[in-house]
What does this fold into?
Amino acid sequence: MSQANRTTRYTTPKQVTSILTEQLSALKECPELASEIPPIMLWGPPGVGKSSMVRDACNQLDVNFIDIRLSQREPVDLRGLPVPNGDSVDWLISGEWPRDPESRGIILFDEITAADRSLQVAAYELILDRRLGDLYKLPDGWLVVAAGNRAEDRAVATTFSSALANRFCHLDVTADLESWCQWASANGVHPDIIGFVRFRPECFFNIEGNVEQGWPSPRSWTRVSHILSNLSKRLDEATVGLMIQGLVGAPASTEFLAFRRWSNELPDIPAMLQGKCPIQIPDRADQRFAFCSGLAHHLWKGPVNQQNKRLDRFFEISHQLSSDFATLALLDATAGSNDAEQEYRTTEIFCHSAFESWSDRHGKVFNQHLAQVA
It folds into this structure.
C-alpha cells in the first residue's frame, strides 16, 4: 500500500506513555481486570524509541521493567528447563519472571518480529494467557507489551500469526519531531542537536538512504549528544566528525557540523541569562534555532539562588524574539524529565510576573502551535 493510501493513525510517544500509564493504574485499582486488559503491540521503524517509551513509563510510575529480547532467546528460556524426577519431569522456570504477587511493572517482549516462529509460539501463552501452563502465573500487577518492526521498515521482520495478532492492541509509532524535542530538552540532549533538527526536520529521521551504515533517527541523535557532551573535549574535531558521521550518515552529519560552526558564534547564553552581557538576538534562522534551544537548556542550569534572575532575563530575551521562536523556547523550558520536574518548571514560568506580558505578545502563535500539535 502506498503512503498516500495509508489509513493508519500514528501514535506519539506521549500517547503511548499515557496509554501504558492508564493500563497500569487500572491494574493497580482493579487487579481482577488483568485478563481483560489487552497487551500492547508497538509497531514502528528502528530507532524511534519504542523500548524507551516503555522504560520511561515505568520510571514515571516507579514500577519494575523487564526487557525480553526474543531474537536472542531460545524457546526453553521462556517455557523453562525440563528436569527428570523419577518417572516424571519437573520444570525449572526462569528466575527473571516476577514472583512477588504484589509487584507491579511491564514485561516488554522487544524485537518480537525478529524472532522466528518457534519463539513466537513459545511466547504466546505468557502474552495471551499470562501464564505458563500450571507452572507459572504472571502477577496481576504486570502489563505485557511487545514491540517490533514492520516489513516496510527494512529490518528483519517475520509475520505474526492471526491468533497472536488478534489478541494485541496494535499501535503504530512514528518519529515525531516535536515530541522528541520536548523529551530531548527535558533529558539533557545537547541543545545544538535540538536546534538543528528543528531547523532541518528532514534530517531528524530518514530511513531512505543506506541503512546498512549510520542514518538519522531519534536513537542516533541521542548518541550524537553523548559524543558532544562526553567525548568532544577529549577528541580532536575531525575524529568527532567521523563518529557523528558513523551515527547519522554523511549527508546529515555534514549539515549538522556546518550548523554547529555557526552556532559556536552565538553570544554567551549563560552570561546573557545572568545579565552579564547585553541581549543579542542572532539574525540567521539557523542560529536562532540554536539560540532558543540553548536558552531553554541553560535556564535551569547554575546556582538555585540565581534562578529568579535567570527567569527574569529569560522573559526579557523572549520579548525580543519573534513569536514562533519565543514559543519554541518556552515549550523547551517547561519540559521536564518527570512529572514533578515538569510541574515545577511549568509553574515557575506560567506564574512568573512577566508571563502575562509574554502571553499578550506571543500567545496567539503559542496557542496555534498547541492546536497543531493536538
